Amino acid sequence: MLGMKIIVAAFLAFIQLVHSHTVLLPSYGRRCFYEKLTKGDELSVSFQFGDRSPTSTQQQSGDFILYGASHNEVLKNMYDVEHGEATITAPYTGRYQYCFLNERSSIDTKDVTFNVYGVVYMDVDDPNNDSLDASVRKLSKLVKEVKNEQDYIVIRERTHRNTAESTNDRVKWWSIFQLIVVVANSLFQIYYLKRFFEVTSYV
């Protein structure tokens, strides 16, 4: 029974997530909506203009403007479009406004269907943030740190191995050089002593 409730709740949440909004646009007017965003949040608005009149055969078009939270600055605008999508990343915390415009038309049956969705930014370094999303982000950050540390260790081990092999090569060639010097010195001493005794016996 509990499992069934969870499935129903998840299904209802999914319906609520994908449910689109449809609003009627007044002639020579606009409809505006607001979203409270914090710095780093991502907001996306997808929309399509239509006509509620059952006798209409034309695809309607309109305007879309997305304002920032500071002095009505325009972040995105689209003019005379049938449909579109706009995505922004909030540069600062504030109240953002997006509007659908029908200001150049006297049609009073024009409507717009739109979806609003986005990604909430969370500071993974905030110790007071104990949400599941923050925990996943923290875990992802730790995994990346461990991976970076492993990459550093691999590079350091390779460097040390190359140094050890280079040192072994130097020791090998130095030993061979010493052996050659010792052999040459021994041959020279044998030759010198042999010649010395030959000269002595001649006298």
UniProtKB/TrEMBL annotation:
GO terms for biological process: endoplasmic reticulum to Golgi vesicle-mediated transport. One of its GO terms (cellular component) is cytoplasm. PROSITE patterns: GOLD. Residues 30-118 form the GOLD domain. The chain crosses the membrane at residues 173-193. Keywords: Membrane, Signal, Transmembrane, Transmembrane helix. SMART domains: EMP24_GP25L (SM01190). SUPFAM superfamilies: Supernatant protein factor (SPF), C-terminal domain (SSF101576). It is a single-pass membrane protein; Single-pass type I membrane protein. It is found in: Endomembrane system; Membrane. InterPro entries: Emp24-like, GOLD_dom, GOLD_dom_sf. This is Endosomal protein P24B. It holds the Pfam family EMP24_GP25L. Residues 1-20 form the signal peptide. Its main location: membrane. Belongs to the EMP24/GP25L family.
